[in-house]
Design brief:
Helix content: 25-40%
Distance between the termini: 23 Å
Largest sheet: 3 strands, antiparallel
Shape: elongated
Number of helices: 1
Strand order of the largest sheet: 1-2-3
Number of strands: 3
Radius of gyration: 11 Å
Structural class: alpha+beta
Length: 51
Protein backbone atom coordinates (compact mmCIF):
# COMPACT_ATOMS: atom_id res chain seq x y z
CA UNK A 1 0.00 0.00 0.00
CA UNK A 2 1.13 3.54 -0.57
CA UNK A 3 1.68 6.16 2.13
CA UNK A 4 -1.60 7.95 1.42
CA UNK A 5 -3.70 4.81 1.80
CA UNK A 6 -1.86 3.99 5.01
CA UNK A 7 -2.59 7.49 6.32
CA UNK A 8 -6.29 7.07 5.50
CA UNK A 9 -6.38 3.71 7.30
CA UNK A 10 -4.81 5.32 10.38
CA UNK A 11 -7.52 7.99 10.30
CA UNK A 12 -10.19 5.27 10.13
CA UNK A 13 -8.65 3.57 13.16
CA UNK A 14 -8.77 6.86 15.07
CA UNK A 15 -12.43 7.22 14.16
CA UNK A 16 -13.17 3.78 15.53
CA UNK A 17 -11.25 4.50 18.75
CA UNK A 18 -13.22 7.74 19.16
CA UNK A 19 -16.46 5.74 19.03
CA UNK A 20 -17.26 6.74 15.48
CA UNK A 21 -17.42 4.92 12.20
CA UNK A 22 -14.20 3.44 10.80
CA UNK A 23 -13.91 5.69 7.75
CA UNK A 24 -10.84 7.82 7.14
CA UNK A 25 -9.65 10.05 4.36
CA UNK A 26 -6.71 12.26 3.45
CA UNK A 27 -6.62 15.20 1.08
CA UNK A 28 -3.48 15.26 -1.06
CA UNK A 29 -2.14 18.19 -3.07
CA UNK A 30 1.11 18.13 -5.02
CA UNK A 31 2.11 14.85 -3.38
CA UNK A 32 1.64 16.11 0.20
CA UNK A 33 -1.14 15.47 2.70
CA UNK A 34 -2.89 18.78 3.34
CA UNK A 35 -5.94 17.48 5.23
CA UNK A 36 -7.02 14.50 7.30
CA UNK A 37 -10.45 13.37 8.42
CA UNK A 38 -12.15 10.48 10.16
CA UNK A 39 -15.78 9.66 10.82
CA UNK A 40 -17.33 10.61 14.13
CA UNK A 41 -20.91 10.21 15.19
CA UNK A 42 -22.60 12.92 17.22
CA UNK A 43 -26.29 13.11 18.09
CA UNK A 44 -27.12 10.19 15.84
CA UNK A 45 -25.68 11.70 12.65
CA UNK A 46 -22.31 11.16 11.03
CA UNK A 47 -20.05 13.97 9.95
CA UNK A 48 -16.51 14.59 8.87
CA UNK A 49 -14.19 17.39 9.94
CA UNK A 50 -10.97 18.12 8.10
CA UNK A 51 -8.07 19.15 10.29
Amino acid sequence: MDEFMNAAILEAQQGRQAGGIPIGSVLVKDGKIVGRVYGVSRCGSSRFEFR
